[in-house]
Design brief:
Length: about 375
């Protein structure tokens, strides 16, 4: 090859190589910028989703706060509070009914409780012995002798014992039960100023108990009563979700308000047990994560102050067995994993202690 041709080729190469290098660098930079733009768009979408869900959850809690305050101030609940408190105080105590109630605790309730909490060694007698004579009498008639099965004790309108309490219950139960069902609350309670649960829609074992010295004096329900009693004003007081034994250790939150007479005298408290299912439905987007733009692995979740999850994890819903196996492989506490498996839920059973949850809880 002639020197002239070689020089031409070299000259071309010297011209082309920098051009190729420049094109390559520009291509890499464009790719990186494009990738960063896509990543930022995804991040913005997730932040937008999170903020929208936060607003929805806040609206939900504002709504139920308004509901408890409004109902507590209604003429019906003010009158019901007076009537139930008076009837509770005068309820006759029949000692012969105690045996059937004790059997109910030891058999029906404990059997159901152990099915849902296989590793729990709860003693039914420790609950029963802390019941007052009035609590034993009312629970005997409205729970133990109630012909409806567990979970349906609210269907009983009148025990037929001709007591003043039964007459009051017959007068108010239908309206309060309709309110509870229409707005999806798990239960609705009325207490007297001293902390006795003088009325409950659902009639679990918290019914008729004392929230100051009874078996559930350290529960979320007791904290809800105390918050409303202490503040002595008609406003909503929220108690965080935690395992609630009368509901078989399912996670339960409460919101309460004082019931006041026209002159400001405390007549009692009104308490709602919150429906964790509704919160779960919101956070899981009706289990339509992909359709709602979260792809194959995105999810939203809500934790309480103890970092416990208040909705079911997407990964648990889609593959319970695989999720449990993965938790075990990650070395998650065995008792926690066993509880998730036994309860078949991550609601109130899975703690998420991550930088994200710590940052969110710290504000």
């Amino acid at each position: 090859m002639q020197l002239k041709n070689r020089l031409s080729i070299v000259a071309v190469l010297l011209a082309v190589i920098p051009l190729l290098i420049t094109c390559f660098v520009i291509g890499v930079l464009a790719y990186q910028e494009g990738k960063a733009a896509v990543t930022k768009e995804i991040e913005n979408n997730l932040v937008s989703r999170r903020n929208a869900m936060q607003a929805q959850v806040e609206r939900y809690f504002k709504t139920i706060s308004d509901q408890v305050v409004t109902l507590a101030g209604s003429t019906m609940v003010v009158d019901a509070s007076r009537a139930f408190s008076a009837a509770f105080a005068s309820y006759p105590h029949a000692r012969e009914a105690e045996l059937s109630l004790s059997r109910f605790y030891e058999t029906q309730f404990l059997d159901q409780y152990r099915q849902k909490n296989p590793g729990d060694s709860l003693s039914a007698s420790s609950l029963f012995t802390r019941l007052s004579p009035t609590a034993r009498g009312l629970q005997s008639h409205y729970i133990a002798a109630n012909p409806n099965p567990l979970g349906s004790k609210d269907q009983l309108l009148d025990t037929g014992d001709n007591s003043t309490y039964s007459a009051v219950h017959r007068r108010y139960h239908k309206a309060l039960r309709e309110f509870q069902a229409r707005f999806g609350f798990y239960d609705v309670f009325i207490t007297n100023p001293q902390g006795d649960v003088v009325y409950s829609v659902f009639k679990e074992l918290d019914f008729a108990t004392s929230l100051t010295n009874g078996p559930f004096r350290e529960s979320g329900l007791a904290r809800a009563y105390e918050a409303a009693r202490a503040q002595h004003v008609r406003e909503g007081h929220f108690v965080d979700f935690s395992p609630y034994m009368p509901s078989y250790n399912a996670a339960a939150g409460f919101i309460s308000s004082a019931i006041l007479a026209d002159d400001g005298t405390l007549l009692g408290t009104l308490i709602f047990q919150l429906p964790v299912d509704e919160i779960n439905r919101m956070l899981t987007l009706n289990e339509q994560w992909y359709e709602q733009g979260l792809g194959d692995s995105g999810e939203l979740y809500l934790v309480n102050q103890n970092k416990m999850l208040l909705n079911n994890s997407r990964f648990f819903v889609e593959d319970p067995g695989g999720f449990i196996a993965q938790l075990r492989s990650f070395g998650v506490d065995n008792d926690m994993v066993d509880n998730i498996e036994q309860q078949h839920t991550t609601i109130g059973t899975l703690r998420i202690d991550s930088p994200g949850t710590r940052a969110a809880l710290s504000g």
